[in-house]
Amino acid sequence: MGIFDFFKKRRLRNLAAALNDSRLLEWLGIDPKNTPAIQEATYYTCIKLLSETMGKLPWKYYQDTASGRIRADPTEMTALLTTRPNPYMTPSTFWQTMEMLCQEYGNAFAWVQSDITKTGEVQKPYRWHWRGLWIMHPQDITIWYDNAGIFGKKNQIHYQYTNPQTGETFLFDSSEVLHFKTWYSRDGGLTGEPVKVILSDTIRSLSLSQQVITNNYEHGMTASMVMYYTDELDDDRINKLQEKFANRLITPQNAGKVVPVPRGLKLEKLNNSFVDSQFYELKKYSALQIAAAFGISPTFLNDYEKASYSNSESQNISFLVNTMLPRVKMYEEEINYKCLLPKEQEAGYFYTMNTNALLRTDAKTQEEIVTGYVNNGIYTPNEGRRMLQLPDKEGGDILMCNGNYIPITQVGKQYGKEGDNGED
Less crowded by CB within 10 Å, the N or C end of the chain? Predict the structure, then answer.
């Protein structure tokens, strides 16, 4: 049986952390003093934006029919996706958490708890088809590739979940697990890789630069100094002298105060200017690199240096089209494959995310959009009212349009006389 040991190193990391053995961490190539990437502000902001955006998008249930797409009657799965995935989470919390895990670990998993056989029949005595969606932490998942057919058919994917509290393990078929991943994969698309692995050096450099700024604040923004002394001192006296003047010079309480210097002792400041070392320029460049890797515009990081009102609006549209739509499409494909019964798939039912929720505009623009749809016969008045969250009205289900419009094949005929062939 072939095994994808994608999470093996993470399991060893957890074991080493539990044992508090720094030597084992170093042997694994893990820095025990390395801070989590999520503590870097740019990295955190990007994951926060992607996760919250995914949580904003509501799920819709439709059916493709001969007369076009129509809203379908809700099912048990529709209630899980739109009302309550499980007793402990709202849909917003669930999808935000799934996207956060996906971006942080490269993969996100959710167990689809159901009472349905592969033929779509309910196994008695259960009452409901679908019972819940349960998030499983990526660090507790091991992916198995059954090339020997031990668990059924050959060349099938299975997911092994280990309960971190009890140590109990469960083996799920691939049809029982929703698996969302990032676009970058090193194993043929089976699993994804997070941005923090690909840009580990860039993220670490930003974390270190933040530590430099923090240390300067802790030391009262006072630069390092060299002490000149004309006499010779042993090591003990040197250490005492350093400690004495360090407490007076670099603590925030003494910043900017006058420090008396004994005769024979001279202090000289070491020039270490952030401006001279292009510190802020390099820090900003690294932050933009991380944002670009996530597909996020600098505007979303509060960098308005090259932004205006018009291109900020276009950047919002670009964020939806280039960053979120690939993610949304991946979510929709996984849901429609694993959360619909075979008979529902054959009947043309499908789930989709309403991306229009990201393009909500001001009241005036919204009025112009709805009015244009209704006046041009695209929406009925009641459909337009629903866009504005208003109740239907009697007679509002009839399409209307301007009476002056004519078919394109008859353009010009209105200017000729009846029976005239149009010649002079």
Answer: C
CA 399: distance to chain centroid?
40
Q: How many CB atoms within 10 Å of residue 72?
A: 19
CB 33 within 8 A of CB 17: no
What are the structure tokens assigned to 178, written together? 């929703």
Give me the residues paired with residue 352 across strands. 60
Range scoring the smallest mean pLDDT among 112-116, 121-125, 366-370? 121-125
Sketch the domain layout of the chain as residue ranges.
Answer: 2-195, 361-412
245-280 residue pLDDT tens: 666 666 655 555 556 666 556 666 655 555 544 555
Backbone angles phi and psi of 142, in degrees to 5: -125, 130
Q: Which residues contact 137 (CB under 8 A, 6 or more apart)?
A: 101, 109, 164
Neighbour-count burial of 266, counting CB atoms closer than 10 A to its CB (0-12 exposed, 13-18 middle, 19+ buried): exposed
Amino acid at site 158: H
What are the Cα distances from residue 388, in Å, to 372, 377, 382? Answer: 14, 17, 10
Tokens of 235: 């090591």
Identity of residue 227: M
